[in-house]
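[audit] Reproducing an earlier prediction to check determinism. Same input, same settings, fresh worker. If the tokens differ from the archived copy the diff job will pick it up downstream; this log only records the rerun itself.
[audit] input (248 residues):
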Amino acid sequence: MANEAPKKGVSLANQQPLIDLFDRYVPVLSIAEKTRPFPATSYLEEMASRNFQSVLVQTPEGLRKFDSGDPAPRPLAAADLLQGPTPLIQAFEKLLHQRRFFIETEGGISHIVTQSDLDKIPMRLVVIGYISVWETFLRDRVKSQVPAWQNSLSSERLASAEALYQLKKNRNEEIDLIQCLQLADLGSIFSKNKRYKQLMLGASREQYDAMVRNIGKLRDALAHSQSRLPFSWQEIHEQLSFMRKAML
């Protein structure tokens, strides 16, 4: 076991189309809200009545931005803007460091996206999608690299997988035992015999175990549509980054 050779990328080709889907084809517009400029004479009242924190203001000098707490409307800068086709996963990283962006489309500035928009369905779908790809990646890796993977599971976890396998087999489902492992089981297999070093370079076993345990908690929260996720968006970004690096 200790001599298992890492074969990084052995199953990535199967997952790349899905990774590309999440990386490229879910745009920031999927979570953004439409916006429009308010007159310079009434933008404060409009903000108060709509509970807005940021607005566009049409002034005699041109289009301006105003954020709560500003002394007056200010010119828009390039750092305030995102393009409509920007992938959501890229906007996600930017929103960790800046509360809001205005979005340019062909018709001009038409939308706004804020940190609170990250909790919308498209972002949740991207996150659970990555976790699903990660789970499939681990299954493929177990098949190709850990022929004696059963030795890395407790008798209880192995019995649970075997019971599920028998149930599905009785239903005439085409399945193997590895497909009946839970995400926690897959993570545990790579925790043993220093296999985690293939997935999380420079980390300790404790760091790896904590990461995969938290990914499992996040997956469960998303699967049950919990209104409040158990991690901050910064922590979720770190989990996504770990999975992406491990798979790529």
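[audit] rerun output stored. Observation attached for the diff report: Helices lie at 12-24, 43-50, 88-95, 121-145, 155-170, 183-191, 205-223, 233-247.
[audit] end
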